[in-house]
Amino acid sequence: GAARLALEIRGLQAWYNESHILHGVDLDVREGEVVTLLGRNGAGKTTTLKAIMGIVGKRSGSVAFNGRELINLPIERIARLGVALCPEERAIFASLTVKENLFLPPAVAKTGAMSVDRIYALFPNLRERLSSGGGKLSGGEQQMLAIARILRTGARFLMLDEPTEGLAPVIIQQIGRTIAELKREGFTILLVEQNFRFASTLADRFFVMEHGRIVDAFASVELEGRMGFLHETLGV
Ligand code: ATP
Question: Rounded to whole angstroms, how far apart are CA atoms 215 and 208?
Answer without folding.
Answer: 6
